[in-house]
Amino acid sequence: MRFVVNTAKAAAQKTELAIVAIFEDGELGPPARALDKKSNGLISAVVDGGDVAGKAGELLLLTQTSGLPCKRILLVGCGARASFDRKAFRKALTGTIRWLSRKPYTTVYSFLAQENVRGADAERMARITTECWHTTTYKFTEMKSKKDKNDSALKSFGIAVKSSKVVTNARRGARQGNALGLGMSFSRDLANLPGNICTPRYLLKKARALARDTNRLTCKVLGEAQMKKLGMGSLLSVTAGSVEPAQFIILEYKGAAASTAPTVLVGKGITFDTGGISLKPPATMDEMKFDMSGAASVFGTFKAIAELQPTINVIGLVPACENMPGSKATKPGDIVTSMSGQTIEVLNTDAEGRLILCDALTYAHRFEPAAVIDIATLTGACVIALGKHHSGLMSTSDQLAGRLLAAGEKADDKAWRLPLTEEYADQLKSNFADIANIGGREAGTITAACFLGKFTEGLEWAHLDIAGTAYRGGGSKGSTGRPVPLLLEFLLSR
Ligand code: BES
Ligand code: MN
Ligand code: ZN
Predict the structure, then answer these.
(1) Which of the chain's termini has less CB crowding within 10 Å, N or C?
(2) Residue 427 CB less than 6 A away from ligand 1
(3) Separation of CA 285 and ligand 3 centre (Å)
């Protein structure tokens, strides 16, 4: 898709379709008003006739546009004008794009970004528009034998902004939203693939291909022999039951001076989590193919960075393996030695995410990073605590936590901070090893973070638990692409 950002005027722009807002009680925004005036009341006539009221979600197509340069007008109901905010703006766009995908038009112009949107300037509106294009048209058909072919005919999507003063910013926004959308789709594709296709080796293949196609991006990998040499006994204990070899994938994007400390993103890459010997119940076990969503979000963020080529340094670390039962699998009570030297009593083999992340966090120290953020579908408890709206955020740094919360807010990909104070660490006491890998029923999300915290000494570190936000279950089962928006927003704000 080609996105064109300019200061087009609704009443002067030639296009197959002009997309304009109409608000509750038939109130017209400036573009609709201009069209109405130039056409001697075309729009007020349909409002007066009761054909459209401006309710959120309403769409009305006008095909009689004589006297106007546009062939058609789509009136998009946007609800109350005073409460038109980012959420309502996204809703209007999503409805419009979904409708458009069934139409044969090749070029359209949206004038929605000429309205006042609470909490969004022209740059943000343009970014949301291009992002919404990708998230709304996204389809996962890779595993269908017949790919449905009703792809949109659209080639060019015009985004008209209010004034020439904001055009440069809006173009940057559109470009960032486009990169974000591509990154989210990349992430969603990986996460939606089943565990028999999306193996650790498959993730490696995708990371390598991304690096091959991208300036300033390189991909390295540690195999099991190298992990063993480094002493990653915790990570290796998780992959022990699987015939698929574990891969420790390292992406390095160098867009700034070598002296600039990088940000490290660590993504949990369990390509399937059976629970291991502490086997999970069958009911929704299929959803554990999404247990590499943290890894997918790291790759998706790198995809967006690959597009934008910002002047920052970022490292992506993805420990990738399966968690399987088997005669070689780790058993409850087994004690393993992590790369940090700390011994871990594996009381529950289903608490495997922290076991691979801890060695990755230890490894992260060698980059002398400015900040380390790990992203993981880590605990079912987080889904109970926060549901699907907020990712769980835990950090030992108020500053880093604040920045991540702000990034999530701006990107409409919100996180909520949970406490990470000393007293929770008591729950990880082990009678036999330095620490246990589970902390009992209480505050499961926090004790998981506490466990990780034992491996982040000296780091500016934050942990995102995305168990509730990375994918949806039930009828709309599938990856959401979160928290790529938060991560990209955070990185670009550095
Ligand atoms: N991948 C799961 C967490 C999870 C559960 C994500 C449900 C999404 C939905 C993780 O590996 C796990 O199994 N965690 C256990 C930890 C427990 C054994 C301490 C959990 O949450 O039950
Ligand atoms: Mn598990
Ligand atoms: Zn897991």
Answers:
(1) N
(2) no
(3) 11
CA of 467 to the centre of ligand 1 (A): 8
| Alpha-carbon distances, residue 61 vs 71, 179, 438 (angstroms) | 11, 31, 57
Average pLDDT of the chain is 98
**Number of helices and strands in the chain (H, E):** 14, 21
Ion ligand 3: residues, CB < 5 A: 270, 273, 291, 353
Q: Is 56 in the pocket of ligand 1 (CB under 6 A)?
A: no
- Nearest protein Cα to ligand 1, atom 5: 380
The Å distance, Cα 271 to ligand 3 centre, comes to: 9
> Per residue in 293-342, pLDDT tens?
999 999 999 999 999 999 999 999 999 999 999 999 999 999 999 999 99
Average pLDDT over residues 175-195: 99
Per-residue pLDDT, 152: 81
- Catalytic residue set: 280, 354
CA angle 187, 189, 190 (to 5 degrees): 65
pLDDT at 148 over 80: no
CA–CA gap between residue 332 and residue 215 (Å, rounded): 45
Distance CA 137, CA 125 (A): 18
Would the CB of 322 count as within 6 Å of ligand 1? Answer: no
CA atoms within 13 A on the CB side of 7: 8
Which ligand has the shortest distance to the CA of 469?
A: 1
Domains of the chain (ranges, CATH numbers): 2-162 (3.40.220.10), 182-493 (3.40.630.10)
3-class DSSP state of 312:
coil
* pLDDT for residue 150 is more than 70: no
- 435 has a pLDDT exceeding 80: yes
Pocket test for ligand 1, best of 297, 347, 350, 355 (most atoms within 8 A of CB): 350
Largest CA distance in the chain: 84
pLDDT per residue over 337-380, tens digit each? 999 999 999 999 999 999 999 999 999 999 999 999 999 999 99
Q: Is 376:357 a contact under the CB 8 Å cutoff?
A: yes
Q: How close is the Cα of 392 to the center of ligand 1, in Å? A: 14
Which position has the token pair 């704000």?
493
The one-character DSSP state at 120 is: B
